[in-house]
Structures are given as structure tokens and as C-alpha cells.
Design a protein that fits this description.
- The chain contains twelve helices and two strands; from the N terminus they run H-H-H-H-H-E-E-H-H-H-H-H-H-H.
- The protein has 254 residues and is mainly alpha-helical.
- Strands 1-2 form a two-stranded antiparallel sheet.
- The radius of gyration is 18 Å and the shape is globular.
Length: 254
């Protein structure tokens, strides 16, 4: 396909999949449960953190995390006592366990108490054309308090050549101005134009078949290549094409 043909094809797929129906089977439904900004961003961050594997299980376990926090994640993060954390110990989603979740709650408390919240960190470290540096800086802040070494693997780092799929997906949820009701767009201090596409097996394979990606590994170098191509198609809202790539891969077996 020529570039104009490819853009037309992908734009049609975005229209097809970027709808409210998408929410029903996707973990983006979790932050949609809340109205308070801090609840939305914490619920989204925790849900995105465990967003790998079976989608039904991701959604189920994300709901379980919210239940464990009394469905008031911001209040729980800020005001929990040590005894309140005990009920989190039995949580497990694949390799993310209760001790990891407890560590995340403590790190989030530090972020809201001492750093102005999640949005403030990503805003502070954003570059004119990318949030990948901000993700690396976020990880440093996240683990500046005492923590288990094992928990570090659950926050990715582009400077270590990770595509950081789950955090990029989370940033799409928070920053993208979506008039379709899927992405929440509550962070106004970061332009959607500098977001990066969540790159995983599905989106990577589809991107290669469409000629958007030549690199074989789904790493930070591949992400930079894909970002460049998607920004040619739509410089203002490049990550809208995540809906097209994901939909083609997961729902159509493209």
C-alpha cells in the first residue's frame, strides 16, 4: 500500500475499534469506574501494571485490586496503615504478587506526598518529542524509597531498551484526548503528539506486515521506528493507531 492508502486503511480501523465497545473487554474500563482525578490515575496505573496475559484475568484481577483498596485507591494510598496492607499479601497476577502490590502502594504514597502526584513527574521530565525519558525518570522516583529488588521488574525502563508497553498504554489512557469515550485524557500538561504506541507481540506483528516496522525485536529501538512512521500518518494523534494495530492483531488475526 502507498502511504495515503495505508493511512486510509488504518484510519478506518481506528474508527472501527476506538468505540465504547472496546472498553468491555479491556482494562481501560478500570479507571473509568472513578470520577476523582487521583482515583482515575492510580486505578489506571495499577491496572496497566498487570496488563499482560489473558485479558479477562487482567480485568478480573484489576477489579480485585480496587476491591482490596475499598474502591477508593487514592484514599487508600494516602491514608493506609501497616495493618491495612496485610490484606494485599494474598494478591497475585502472574509474577506480580502481594508484596509487589504493597511496594507499589508505598511508592505511590511517596509520589503523592513528596512529588506532586503521577502527572507531575511525567510532565516534569517530558521532552519536546517524547515521553520515553520521562518513563526512565519515573522509575527512578518510584523506587527511591526502600523496596524489594524483585518489584523493580514490574516498572519498565526505555533506557534499558524496553518498549515499555504497559506504561505507554497507561500514558495513552491519561493523555490522549479521545472524543470516543475510551481514553480518559485527564492529563492536560502532556500533548498526545509525543505519546508512543504500546508495542507488543500483536501490534508489532501487524506493524511489520503493514511495512511500518522493520526491526524484529519489540524493544525501544523498534518503538522509535514505529513512532516515526505513525507520526507521519498523524503528527497530532499518532497513538490512535494503537486501536488499529491492536484490533487487527487481536480481533482479526491479521
Amino acid at each position: 500500500m502507498t502511504n495515503p492508502e495505508l493511512k486510509t486503511f488504518l484510519d478506518e480501523k481506528v474508527t472501527q475499534y476506538n468505540t465504547l465497545d472496546f472498553i468491555e473487554s479491556d482494562p481501560v474500563q478500570i479507571p473509568h469506574l472513578f470520577s476523582l482525578k487521583e482515583d482515575i490515575e492510580i486505578a489506571g496505573f495499577l491496572s496497566a501494571t498487570i496488563a499482560w496475559g489473558n485479558r479477562k484475568m487482567i480485568v478480573k484481577n484489576s477489579h480485585k485490586m480496587m476491591d482490596l483498596m475499598g474502591n477508593s485507591p487514592y484514599d487508600f494510598v494516602l491514608n493506609h496503615q501497616e495493618q491495612h496492607l496485610e490484606k494485599l499479601e494474598k494478591f497475585v497476577h502472574r509474577t506480580f504478587n502481594g508484596q509487589d502490590l504493597i511496594g507499589f502502594i508505598k511508592s505511590l504514597k511517596n509520589i503523592y506526598t513528596n512529588h506532586g502526584g503521577l502527572e507531575a513527574i511525567f510532565t516534569k521530565h517530558q521532552k519536546a518529542d517524547s515521553l520515553q525519558n520521562a518513563i526512565s525518570e519515573f522509575k527512578k522516583v518510584f523506587f527511591e524509597i526502600n523496596h524489594l529488588n524483585r518489584t523493580e521488574k514490574h516498572v519498565s525502563d526505555p533506557s534499558k531498551n524496553s518498549s515499555s508497553k504497559r506504561i505507554n498504554m497507561y500514558l495513552r489512557w491519561m493523555c490522549r484526548q479521545d472524543n470516543k469515550g475510551v481514553d480518559l485524557g485527564i492529563w492536560k500538561s502532556i500533548s498526545p503528539s509525543i505519546l508512543s504506541c504500546p508495542l507488543d507481540v500483536h501490534s508489532g506483528n501487524v506493524a511489520r506486515k503493514l511495512g511500518l516496522l522493520t526491526r524484529n525485536q519489540n524493544d525501544s529501538k523498534a518503538l522509535a521506528e514505529l513512532d516515526s512512521k505513525l507520526r507521519e500518518l498523524d503528527p497530532n494523534d499518532p497513538v490512535k493507531y494503537d486501536f488499529a494495530l491492536f484490533g487487527l492483531g487481536v480481533f482479526e488475526g491479521f
